[in-house]
Amino acid sequence: MSDTVRIGVVGLGRLGRRHAENLARRIAGATLVAAASPVAEERAWAERALNGVATYAGLTELLRHPDLDAVWLVTPTSLHADQVIEAVEAGKHVFCEKPLALDPADCDRAIAAAAGRPEQIVMVGFMRRFDPAYAEAKRLIDEGALGDIVAIRCVSEDPIDPDGFFVRFAPTSGGVFLDCCIHDIDLVRWMLDGVGFSAVAAVGSRIVTPALADCGDVDTASACVAFAGGTIADFYVTRTSHRGYEAAMTIVGSKATLEVGRAIPKLPLTLEQAGRRSVAGQGDFFERFGEAFLLEARAFVAAVRNGGPTPLGLGDAREATRLACAMRAALKVG
Ligand code: NAI
């Protein structure tokens, strides 16, 4: 391998374009050499915007690009497991967006493929772990500043979506727990050092987006999880926020309470309506976690150049999928 990691990005949609721009310009030690999408318009964008990278219609074609070291998957989640396996078997290092797969069995297939090629790096994109605020929260927990963790309350809000993006996106996403809540699931498991869970309850609704019924998804959901050791965690997730994007977490310990990401209003009263934001939002997910996406990419490139280790393991990605599937099952049976 050359000293520079030569990367091909696959998927040039909402997030793939952002990753591609980062990899093309902002990651020392990496260079973007190829991009793939089945959509001609997206390939034309890549040719214009990414310094003339080679473009391909899909992963299989991109894997034939000469001198390619790593593949960066930002494709629909339903494709992840098979694409991870195809890229690993082609001898490439792989970055895969979250979640690793839509069920634990598919995660296991991808993990088995990676285990057969230990010299190749395979990493899943739980970028919130790289966010300086969540990373500091983890550091404070590990040094004992909060004491025993009693409860964690997570909020993930996507802006209300009048254009119907989520209705088109939902069928391949696994639903709101696997797609959106998965970030908080991974963070909570990380904060709790990967402890297992013992009980899950969940409810959900689609008052704003009834069309999600076609794929069994909801636009707003809440899950409550009991973890071994006694910590309980609440996960609230919605696609109907009037204040824009928000990710927040309250961690209640026996010695102290920590807030991550909450905009605290001057008065304890706010009215929030689209176009009349009375609480400063956090921009979109890319604005809120822009630095985390860069740090995540740098961590992957460093792992490839140094021969490992990766900062987060595939076993964690599997367990995040398993808990999200348990939430979805709890929602289904009520
Ligand atoms: P999107 O629907 O906007 O983009 C998907 C892209 O994949 C499109 O470029 C599409 O043309 C391409 N594609 C579809 N089928 C393909 C195939 N067979 N081969 C190659 N490319 C194909 O979706 P979005 O929002 O960009 O999400 C993509 C992935 O990124 C998902 O797994 C999602 O969970 C993840 N994601 C992660 C976020 C984070 O916070 N880390 C935020 C948003 C998405």
UniProtKB/TrEMBL annotation:
<dbReference type="GO" id="GO:0016491">
    <property type="term" value="F:oxidoreductase activity"/>
</dbReference>
<dbReference type="GO" id="GO:0006740">
    <property type="term" value="P:NADPH regeneration"/>
</dbReference>
<feature type="domain" description="GFO/IDH/MocA-like oxidoreductase">
    <location>
        <begin position="134"/>
        <end position="259"/>
    </location>
</feature>
<dbReference type="InterPro" id="IPR055170">
    <property type="entry name" value="GFO_IDH_MocA-like_dom"/>
</dbReference>
<comment type="similarity">
    <text>Belongs to the Gfo/Idh/MocA family.</text>
</comment>
<dbReference type="GO" id="GO:0005737">
    <property type="term" value="C:cytoplasm"/>
</dbReference>
<dbReference type="Pfam" id="PF22725">
    <property type="entry name" value="GFO_IDH_MocA_C3"/>
</dbReference>
<keyword id="KW-0560">Oxidoreductase</keyword>
<feature type="domain" description="Gfo/Idh/MocA-like oxidoreductase N-terminal">
    <location>
        <begin position="5"/>
        <end position="126"/>
    </location>
</feature>
<protein>
    <submittedName>
        <fullName>Myo-inositol 2-dehydrogenase/D-chiro-inositol 1-dehydrogenase</fullName>
    </submittedName>
</protein>
<dbReference type="InterPro" id="IPR036291">
    <property type="entry name" value="NAD(P)-bd_dom_sf"/>
</dbReference>
<dbReference type="Pfam" id="PF01408">
    <property type="entry name" value="GFO_IDH_MocA"/>
</dbReference>
<dbReference type="InterPro" id="IPR000683">
    <property type="entry name" value="Gfo/Idh/MocA-like_OxRdtase_N"/>
</dbReference>
<dbReference type="GO" id="GO:0000166">
    <property type="term" value="F:nucleotide binding"/>
</dbReference>
